[in-house]
Design a protein that fits this description.
mainly alpha, globular
Length: 169
């Protein structure tokens, strides 16, 4: 399969927007800068997650997933907690801090993709569950984070696109 460099370019743009969006937080989240930040945040992570889903395989090997997601998650999450001086009170691997939610969510999405892809209407169902979880305050305790459930359907839309692409060929 020939490499599509447009995805690489999109990832570079999205990484730049992530850094820019986080930098804007230092200047405040209101006014024009807040609006710019809100626009960036409205699409940069869903698009990043879609790209991750698009290139994910349904038959991912568990040992590879552990090496590429869980081990880095544990290492970096722990290092971050120790550098903040709060590690003793805050180590909870099911409630990741800072940006490390992405690694834990990526593991969950990749492990479950082969099972959820068999469910007819999973994308619509996942959107409904994600919206519901985003509306209830207790959802944060149910599983490791809100971001995981809200963008879960974005990750799984890749199957629908791959099926359409396959039908065209």
């Amino acid at each position: 399969m020939k490499r599509d460099y447009s995805f690489d370019n999109m990832k570079v743009l999205l990484i730049t927007l992530v850094v820019f969006g986080h930098a804007l937080e230092e200047f405040g989240t209101t006014g024009k800068l807040g609006l710019i930040r809100a626009v960036i945040y409205s699409f940069h992570m869903p698009l990043f997650i879609f790209i991750s889903g698009y290139f994910s395989k349904s038959d991912a090997k568990p040992d590879k997933l552990l090496k590429t997601t869980i081990i880095p998650f544990i290492i970096f999450n722990t290092i971050w907690l120790f550098t903040q001086g709060t590690a003793i009170n805050r180590i909870n691997f099911f409630k990741p801090i800072y940006v490390f939610w992405y690694l834990l969510s990526l593991f969950f999405w990749r492990v479950t993709v082969k099972y959820f892809d068999r469910v007819k209407g999973i994308v619509i169902l996942a959107f409904i569950v994600g919206i519901y979880c985003g509306c209830i305050g207790e959802a944060e305790r149910f599983f490791f984070n809100i971001q995981n459930r809200i963008v879960f359907p974005v990750f799984h839309t890749r199957l629908q696109i791959q099926k359409r692409k396959y039908r065209k060929n």
